[in-house]
């Protein structure tokens, strides 16, 4: 599935252009057919890739388009996941409703965290968010919250059976839900980036002082971007909780933040669609590294990472953009 | 009162660990204007090299200094081989390379020396000062001070130290006045790796040597450097001690925190300091222009 | 594999098994992953990341299956194909890898998945899919629940069981006990504390005078140790992993704390804990154990040790001879071997589970008197342990094998 996705990282889908209906249409058709060609496990993996892609897109809105570092997005992912899990486990909410709720809770959390983070820049912000990412699993474990979060044992999340009128398996159903949510989230992001708000976000990234002097309310935009970014990641987290059917503090360690960060850079920070490749990368490359050598899988993963950065210093989307420019010159 | 005193002294002892690594963090920051997230793993790897030499029969001090030299060369090589081709790549890509290095060092150390904890010898005598603080911790305190004075002198009084700062702060202008910016970066990497190696060899006797030895400590090292001020070696050391003490006292006397949320305290400390003193308690204010 | 070899293997297996094999040969029943010549077994282990130290278990299990494949031609003539995947101790990854094992690799069963949160992530999945989740490598209590989770079984004594046995030890041997506890802030640490509290019952709050936790990211546990000593306790109950246990022992002596030192079996290893902490410092530490310590020089001349050592040298030469994980893997792999032997040619998932719940086994690196016993209502294979004291060189038994029942 994902190889198809990867080739769809088309430059014309990036900032400031029209959505090429044909390519997106093709992408949607391929994405819609795939679940019937693949087995349950591959569907499950595809679903995870799309969930990661949404989270990475959220991170990219913050870092790539607004210039704010975050090494702590696992925290928002965790908040989204736990929101969904708690609502389902303790209050028996329908799982579908918990997805947007997880996003909204994260929006508030992100906006609030964004307020003090306004004063931090670059590296300092990276560290403060990293700190957040490290602290959240500990806070989830804390005995004060154990009744709610299930402490170290985590919580089970049960999915309702597939409605009878749908001729789908559980894996296919959730693949389609993730696919649909992903398309909507990407569409929203695309519109956001190409709006006045989006230009303000990028102006703040490129030259904060100039943007301020031109009347952009930098503080508001930065906190709002933090909120929106957390919203995306929270949606992804909530879906992950439901698809994995389990949450535990150990699912959301800072390593997840680092993975999301890697996915963002490898996908390319200047495009929306790079996130899909990023999701594909962080799910499959560790598995690939493991197949080469079990004991040294991390080392191999590290080597692959460094090589990828050599070949694609600005990510897959960056490479595609570069190729497009070259080809245009030739023509 | 006895408990209070003991917690302060233990905090100082832990603080010495943080301060030691914070120095390496400051060093690399002075050179590349950035954090090196692989600093902890590089220090761990250096410590293993020293351990292997001692296990192979070399006397402690020979291994100690040999490790410093190897680490210096290693740091230099990492900059020249891995980072030089990436000079024009975005900072985000650099961070990913740091992450790659973390994975490589951690995994390789585990594969070569396995994951069982190893005893690492201390150059200082066994025992403790009235049962309150170990002699090793006291020795480490002095090693940290010596390194601090060395770094301070290096940046303050040597041409090369000043050139390095210039190269980090403003590479273009530094290049124009004839500073070889590329080699300054490499030198900074080498020195940071060497300081990290000393930190690793001082820390390992306390926490035992294993591939994940630096996992938590690096975070505290960053916290210390930030609290004290990333541009100031003295501030970083002071920050280390401060984090160590505050963390212990909060864990002991604030029941809601207890030992459970000790790390969270360190993190709250970072954020609070940054909010009120963005350049750290002892750092210089930096003015940016449009 | 050529037919001649296969035939001879079958003959050997029949001869070895006698009655069981001949009667079972009549109707072969195979579940997924089983053929006439092979059985696929799945596993997840943290080969990377912070918990990678435990991967020695996965590696020694693989080595043991290598051994029986080479020396005995597998089990009942079927080679064991052991597929062990890395989950980095991350529950979502465990779910992904386990689904791969079950749905793509089609394994007969998943064996010895490591970790409580990781196994929890697939607990429901395995039971819904009706795939045996056998002998999970964690000491949580929830793995022994045949009524609700008939496809999951633990192996080692649960942490709570050990906690209870420590409670019994304290009540019998210490006058006016006042207990101070150091524990790792996760499921493992908390289970030990719960076990002790359960045993002490109403008296728990008056007997336990101090509890301190630490995080795996903490550089040292010195601050916690000082607080614990300050409580005036005369029993120190240490629930920490090897690195922190070694630190605790050093600090315990440095503080001149005069208390009974009880150490959990997770860190009860001469090579991995007592030697780094100092053998002298470790004198007098009391612990509970169910298998032999492979670093205890006094067993070096015994048959079981020599057999284990020969296995290590031949099949797992990179393995650490002082790590208890390798003995653990060696023993648990033998337990599975026994289950497969008993299942004969009826290798359906149902029958494997039935045989797993029908064990009565003594293995030779176990402490004498500790048995592996299960029944359809008892999914806790090992429940007995023996109190031992470290005398500065080796372990000395200081009581009989005890169990909570």
Automatic annotation (TrEMBL), chain A:
Residue intervals passing through the bilayer: 21-38, 44-62, 74-91, 97-115, 122-140, 173-193, 224-244, 256-283, 295-323
Q: Which UniProt keywords apply?
A: Cell membrane, Membrane, Transmembrane, Transmembrane helix
Source organism, top-level taxon: Bacteria
Q: CDD domains per the record?
A: TM_PBP1_LivM_like
Report the locations given in the UniProt record: Cell membrane
Naming one, the record's GO cellular component terms include:
plasma membrane
Matching InterPro entries, A to Z?
ABC_transp_permease, LivM-like
Major localization listed first in the record, in broad terms: membrane
A UniProt-annotated Pfam family: BPD_transp_2
Q: Name one GO molecular function term.
A: branched-chain amino acid transmembrane transporter activity
Q: How does it sit in the membrane?
A: Multi-pass membrane protein
Annotated PANTHER family: HIGH-AFFINITY BRANCHED-CHAIN AMINO ACID TRANSPORT SYSTEM PERMEASE (PTHR30482), HIGH-AFFINITY BRANCHED-CHAIN AMINO ACID TRANSPORT SYSTEM PERMEASE PROTEIN LIVM (PTHR30482:SF20)
Return the protein name.
Branched-chain amino acid ABC transporter permease
Task: Report the source organism.
Answer: Sneathiella chungangensis
Q: What is the lineage of its organism?
A: Bacteria, Pseudomonadati, Pseudomonadota, Alphaproteobacteria, Sneathiellales
From TrEMBL, chain B:
* Coiled-coil annotated spans: none
* Topological relation to the membrane, as annotated: Multi-pass membrane protein
User: Which CDD domains does this one have?
Assistant: TM_PBP1_LivH_like
Instruction: Please provide the record's keywords in A-Z order.
Output: Amino-acid transport, Cell membrane, Membrane, Transmembrane, Transmembrane helix, Transport
* Main subcellular location of this protein, as a coarse class: membrane
Listed under GO biological process in this entry are: amino acid transport
Where is this chain's protein located in or outside the cell? Cell membrane
Q: Which residues cross the membrane?
A: 12-32, 52-78, 90-113, 133-155, 183-207, 263-282
Output one GO MF annotation: transmembrane transporter activity
Among Pfam families, the record links this protein to: BPD_transp_2
- Its GO CC terms? plasma membrane
Give the protein family. Answer: Belongs to the binding-protein-dependent transport system permease family. LivHM subfamily.
Descriptive protein name = Branched-chain amino acid ABC transporter permease
Which species does this protein come from? Sneathiella chungangensis
Q: Lineage of the source organism?
A: Bacteria, Pseudomonadati, Pseudomonadota, Alphaproteobacteria, Sneathiellales
UniProtKB/TrEMBL annotation, chain C:
Signal peptide (residue range):
1-26
* Gene3D superfamilies per the UniProt record, alphabetical: 3.40.50.2300
Which Pfam family would be a valid example here? Answer: Peripla_BP_6
The cross-references to CDD domains, in alphabetical order and at most eight, read: PBP1_ABC_ligand_binding-like
Question: Which InterPro entries does the record cross-reference, listed alphabetically?
Answer: Leu-bd, Peripla_BP_I
The Leucine-binding protein domain extends over 38-391
Coiled-coil segments on the chain, per record: none
Q: Which family does it belong to?
A: Belongs to the leucine-binding protein family.
**Name of the featured protein:** ABC transporter substrate-binding protein
Question: Which organism is this entry from?
Answer: Sneathiella chungangensis
């Amino acid at each position: 599935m994902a190889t198809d996705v990867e080739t769809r990282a088309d430059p014309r889908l990036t900032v400031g252009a029209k959505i090429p209906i044909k390519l997106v249409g093709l992408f949607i058709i391929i994405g819609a057919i795939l679940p019937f060609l693949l087995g349950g496990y591959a569907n499950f993996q595809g679903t995870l890739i799309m969930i990661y892609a949404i989270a990475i897109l959220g991170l990219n809105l913050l870092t790539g388009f607004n210039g704010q570092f975050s090494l702590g997005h696992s925290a928002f992912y965790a908040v989204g996941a736990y929101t969904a899990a708690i609502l389902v486990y303790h209050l028996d909410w329908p799982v579908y409703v918990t997805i947007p709720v997880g996003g909204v809770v994260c929006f508030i959390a992100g906006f609030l965290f964004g307020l003090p983070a306004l004063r931090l820049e670059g590296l300092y912000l990276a560290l403060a968010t990293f700190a957040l990412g490290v602290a959240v699993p500990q806070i989830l474990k804390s005995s004060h919250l154990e009744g709610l979060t299930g402490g170290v044992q985590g919580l089970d999340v049960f999915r309702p059976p597939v409605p009878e009128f749908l001729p789908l398996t559980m894996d296919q159903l959730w693949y389609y839900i993730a696919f649909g949510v992903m398309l909507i989230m990407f569409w929203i992001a695309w519109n956001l980036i190409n709006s006045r708000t989006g230009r303000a976000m990028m102006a703040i990234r490129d030259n904060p002082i100039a943007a301020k002097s031109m009347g952009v309310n930098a503080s508001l935009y930065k906190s709002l971007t933090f909120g929106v970014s957390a919203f995306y990641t929270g949606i992804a987290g909530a879906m992950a909780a439901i698809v994995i059917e389990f949450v535990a503090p150990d699912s959301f360690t800072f390593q997840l933040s680092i993975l999301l960060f890697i996915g963002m850079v490898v996908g390319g920070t200047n495009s929306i669609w790079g996130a899909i490749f990023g999701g594909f990368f962080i799910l499959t490359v560790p598995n690939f590294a493991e197949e080469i050598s079990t004991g040294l899988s991390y080392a191999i993963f590290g080597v692959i990472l460094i090589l990828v950065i050599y070949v694609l210093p600005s990510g897959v989307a960056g490479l595609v953009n570069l190729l497009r420019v070259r080809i245009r010159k030739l023509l | 009162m006895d408990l209070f005193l003991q917690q302060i002294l233990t905090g100082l002892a832990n603080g010495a660990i943080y301060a030691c690594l914070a120095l390496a963090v400051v060093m690399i920051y002075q050179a590349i204007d950035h954090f090196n997230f692989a600093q902890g793993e590089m220090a761990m790897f250096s410590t293993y090299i020293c351990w292997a030499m001692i296990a192979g029969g070399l006397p402690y001090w020979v291994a100690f200094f040999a490790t410093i030299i190897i680490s210096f060369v290693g740091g230099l090589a990492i900059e020249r081989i891995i980072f030089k081709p990436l000079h024009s790549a975005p900072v985000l890509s650099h961070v990913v390379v740091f992450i790659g290095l973390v994975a490589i060092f951690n995994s390789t150390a585990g594969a070569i020396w396995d994951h069982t904890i190893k005893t690492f010898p201390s150059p200082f005598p066994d025992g403790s000062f009235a049962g309150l603080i170990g002699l090793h911790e006291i020795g480490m305190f002095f090693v940290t001070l010596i390194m601090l004075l060395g770094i301070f002198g290096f940046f303050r009084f040597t041409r090369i130290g000043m050139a390095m700062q210039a190269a980090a702060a403003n590479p273009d202008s530094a290049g124009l006045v004839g500073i070889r910016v590329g080699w300054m970066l490499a030198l900074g990497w080498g020195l940071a790796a060497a300081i990290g190696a000393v930190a690793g060899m001082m820390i390992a006797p306390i926490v035992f040597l294993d591939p994940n030895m630096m996992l938590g400590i690096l975070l505290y090292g960053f916290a210390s450097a930030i609290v004290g001020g990333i541009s100031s070696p003295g501030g970083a050391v002071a920050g280390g001690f401060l984090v160590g003490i505050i963390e212990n006292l909060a864990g002991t006397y604030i029941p809601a925190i207890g030992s459970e949320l000790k790390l969270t305290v360190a993190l709250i400390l970072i954020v609070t300091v940054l909010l009120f003193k963005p350049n750290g308690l002892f750092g210089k204010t930096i003015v940016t222009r449009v | 594999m050529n037919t001649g070899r296969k035939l001879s293997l079958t003959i050997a297996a029949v001869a070895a098994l006698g009655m069981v094999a001949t009667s079972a040969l009549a109707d072969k029943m195979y579940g997924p992953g089983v053929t006439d010549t092979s059985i696929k077994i799945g596993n997840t282990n943290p080969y990377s990341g912070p918990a990678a130290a435990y991967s020695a278990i996965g590696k020694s299990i693989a080595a043991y299956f290598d051994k029986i494949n080479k020396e005995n031609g597998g089990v009942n003539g079927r080679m064991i194909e052991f597929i062990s995947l890395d989950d980095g101790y991350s529950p979502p990854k465990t779910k992904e890898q386990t689904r791969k094992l079950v749905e793509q690799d089609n394994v007969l069963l998943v064996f010895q998945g490591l970790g409580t949160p990781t196994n929890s992530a697939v607990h429901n999945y395995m039971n819904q899919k009706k795939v045996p989740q056998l002998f999970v490598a964690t000491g949580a209590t929830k793995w022994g629940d045949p009524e609700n989770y008939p496809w999951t079984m633990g192996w080692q004594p649960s942490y709570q069981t050990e906690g209870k046995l420590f409670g019994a030890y304290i009540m019998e041997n210490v006058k006016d006990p006042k207990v101070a506890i150091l524990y790792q802030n996760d499921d493992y640490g908390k289970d030990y504390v719960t076990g002790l509290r359960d045993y002490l019952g109403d008296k728990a709050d008056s007997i336990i005078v101090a509890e301190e936790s630490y995080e795996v990211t903490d550089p040292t546990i010195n601050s916690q140790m000082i607080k614990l000593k300050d409580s005036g306790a005369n029993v120190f109950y240490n629930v920490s992993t090897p690195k922190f246990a070694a630190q605790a022992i050093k600090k315990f002596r440095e503080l001149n704390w005069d208390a009974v030192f009880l150490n959990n079996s997770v860190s009860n290893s001469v090579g991995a804990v007592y030697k780094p902490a100092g053998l002298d410092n470790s004198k007098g530490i009391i612990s509970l154990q169910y298998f032999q310590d492979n670093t205890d020089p006094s067993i070096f001349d015994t048959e079981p040790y020599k057999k284990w050592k020969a296995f290590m040298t031949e099949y797992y030469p990179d393995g650490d001879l002082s790590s208890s994980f390798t003995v653990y893997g060696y023993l648990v792999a033998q337990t599975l071997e026994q289950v497969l032997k008993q299942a004969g040619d009826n290798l359906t998932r149902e029958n494997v589970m039935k045989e797993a719940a029908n064990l009565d086994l003594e293995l030779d690196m176990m402490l004498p008197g500790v048995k592996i016993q299960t029944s359809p209502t008892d999914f806790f294979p090992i429940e007995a342990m023996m109190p031992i004291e470290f005398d500065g060189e080796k372990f000395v038994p200081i009581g009989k094998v005890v169990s909570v029942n």
